[in-house]
Amino acid sequence: MATLSFTSETVEMYLKSIAELELLTTPVAISQLAQRLGVSSPSVLEMVKRLAEQKLVTHTPYKGVSLTARGHSRALAVLRRHRLWERFLVDTLRLPWEAVHDYACQLEHAAAPAVVDALAQFLGEPDTCPHGNPIPDAKGAMPAETAIPLLTMEIGQSARLTNIIYEETILLEYLARRGLLPGAMLTLEDVAPYQGPLMVRVDGFDHPAALGREIAARVFVHVIE
Amino acid sequence: MATLSFTSETVEMYLKSIAELELLTTPVAISQLAQRLGVSSPSVLEMVKRLAEQKLVTHTPYKGVSLTARGHSRALAVLRRHRLWERFLVDTLRLPWEAVHDYACQLEHAAAPAVVDALAQFLGEPDTCPHGNPIPDAKGAMPAETAIPLLTMEIGQSARLTNIIYEETILLEYLARRGLLPGAMLTLEDVAPYQGPLMVRVDGFDHPAALGREIAARVFVHVIE
DNA sequence: CCTTTGAATTAGGTTGCCCTAATTGCAATT
DNA sequence: AATTGCAATTAGGGCAACCTAATTCAAAGG
User: Fold this and answer.
1) Is B6 in CB contact (< 8 Å) with chain A?
2) Which of A83, A178, A204, B188 could form a disulfide with A135 if both were Cys (CB 3.0 to 4.6 A apart)?
3) What ipTM, to 2 d.p.?
């Protein structure tokens, strides 16, 4: 009966993180979310219960969290704002590719719908962020994903890098230095055993790049058949 | 000894409001600040005491609050961000002059220094906001004000409107409909007695505009000698 | 000078969002 | 089937930022 309320910013941060983690595993574990958000598990659990009360997520005890349709559409609105700001920061303000994700995290909660719409129009209604991730349209529809994780490529296959999910500055810097930007052409040369790295040759680079499996699961590609 | 801390956003909102109210009266009364911020007087007092502990303001009991040098420079940084966003929203996104103040209030706390600097550069280092108020430079220096409140004009004098402080949407809409935008030329035709309105003729408009004294104190002009 | 009145202040909450420490439950391995 | 390890949960706080109600103070008018 208690109508718990909370700030929309906190709600949005949780929904966005859940949406991103759902791309990797579903349902999302409380501990994953806690690590991602940098808060303790009990704190996450408390928030998750409140989100569940608002029908934004469903929580299965001891299993994890998933977004409801409502939660998903709220999350897409956040992702739209976030990715539009990223485009603006890179295309208009010429800020570095690796850094804009963090800047956009601050801006994503602070723009009124009218501002978001005007921004999208100014940018020419882009459909991907600078890291290749799709920008939902104003109605909340997201282009279908057809790319696969680099991790699932087979040795010898070639592919074009499409997008990178879970954009930490440190990861993006690592990838940028090795030419692993959206659009890059690459070939999977080798996969080391025992959860070892994947060796990837990037067009135009002398040395192959070594990518851990964690990273290779977050880099998406279109394989050239 | 207790090192009270709080979110920088709250601090900034308080400092900005104090800075703006100091233009009208100084020191700023607790109740003025409470009305401006939309919170209760005890809440304001509590925050003011903390700000005083951090040497951002000085509080004289039963008198009011003033910014210290430190507080003033923090406030100018907020005003810079705010006014740069306003310029962006009007000049780049073509959003309405009356509405951008409110949008900028949300954005002003959410931009990293690198973003603010890049934005200023993109906009061509403007020195006023769309409402005519000066934008402090990156070092925190503000151009000196030489304009006077319209309220202090004498009947028959002509002047050019320079800026409007304390920008509420409803006030800006009222002024915009009567041509009272920065740059407008006007003549003070009459002043009604008993705190009555000032009658102002605006170049290019048939009917004189009536401005209450509260408003006339917030519209600044350069008198044509 | 005393009274009055409204602002400032004090007293005593509440809520959102976070924490650590302790406990419980699940699932994988012996 | 029992054990063990780790994630999930419960229990019990803390702090920032707000509130209302009650009290105190200062400045102005009788």
Assistant:
1) no
2) A83
3) 0.91
